[in-house]
Amino acid sequence: MGSLTDDPDFRATTFVVIDFETTTPTGYPAQPIEVAALALRCPDGAWTEAGRSTSLIRPPAFAPVTPADTAQTGLTAAELAGAPDVAHVMGALDRRFTPGGRYLLVAQHAATEANVIHNAREHCPALSRVDFLDTIPLAKYLVPGLANYKLDTLLAHFAIAQPAARHRAYADVDVTAQVFLRLLGAADDAAQLADLAALVKVAGRTAKSNIPVQGGLFNI
After folding, report:
1. Domain ranges (residues) in the chain
2. 131 φψ region: left (φ > 0), alpha (ψ -120 to 50), beta (else)
3. Euclidean distance between CA atoms 179 and 200, whole angstroms
4. 3-206 — its CATH code?
5. In what order do the strands lie in the sheet with 31-41?
6. What are the coiled-coil residue ranges (predicted)?
7. What is the average per-residue pLDDT within 9-29?
8. With contact defined as beta carbons under 8 Å apart, do 43 and 10 qualify?
9. DSSP code string of 42-61
């Protein structure tokens, strides 16, 4: 391991890999039907798992699971009917973030996760203020020249086995975490990212709740 994982700020940060499966009803933003999170730390140069969470989420009545959703995820309306709602699930996940702790969320195409979290921010105020690292710009920076930067392409590039439950949140979180660690290993090997600040500059995405709201020009 190299300079990136030697950085005190990097070592003090908990990286939480997160993934949602969603259904997207006409006229509404995507509604989560499953979430998984995997917390990783590297306090002394070696990665350790700091916790994990997974839950199904019952979608609201206006966002029923469609046949296309079931074809992709395997989740059915019957399975989700007895699941807790988004307020319960996101509230429980929010409570796992220690006040004053240093966190970054990690996601493949983080815009999706960022939007879901922001739309549920009343239930997860702490989580909604955690910024992101996006594995797509990180991969573009560290492994240029791939045909695309979809998760399946990155799995093939790093010879990571496809999970049997691909497109389930818990499975996608595990392989996204593996991709993230391979990318950080590549960064260390090539000494391309010196510290956490450099990593954030390349792959960071500000949480929507942390973006200042611009007031009107003539507020009274």
Report:
1. 3-206
2. beta
3. 17
4. 3.30.420.10
5. 48-56, 31-41, 14-23, 103-107, 132-134, 204-205
6. none
7. 97
8. no
9. -TTSS-EEEEEEEEE-BPPT
* pLDDT in the model for residue 216: 58
Distance CA 138, CA 123 (A): 30
Amino acid at 142: L
Which amino acid type is present at position 91?
A: G
- Sequence letter at residue 50: A
Q: How far is 37 from 63, CA to CA, in rounded Å?
A: 23
DSSP-derived 3-state class of residue 158: coil
Q: Using CA atoms, how far apart are residues 72 and 187, in angstroms rounded to an integer?
A: 33
Place of tokens 């493949």: 108
Whole-number Å distance between alpha carbons of 88 and 82: 13
Contact 5, 42 (CB under 8 A): yes
pLDDT at 17 exceeding the cut of 70:
yes
Can you say whether the dihedral through the CA atoms of 209, 210, 216, 219 is positive or negative? positive
CA angle 108, 60, 114 (to 5 degrees): 25
CA distance 101 to 5: 18
- Dist. CA 40–CA 176, nearest whole Å: 12
Coil, strand or helix: which one is 217? coil
What single-letter amino acid sits at 110?
A
Residues 6+ apart with CB under 8 A from 81: 58
Which whole number is the average pLDDT over 97-105? 97
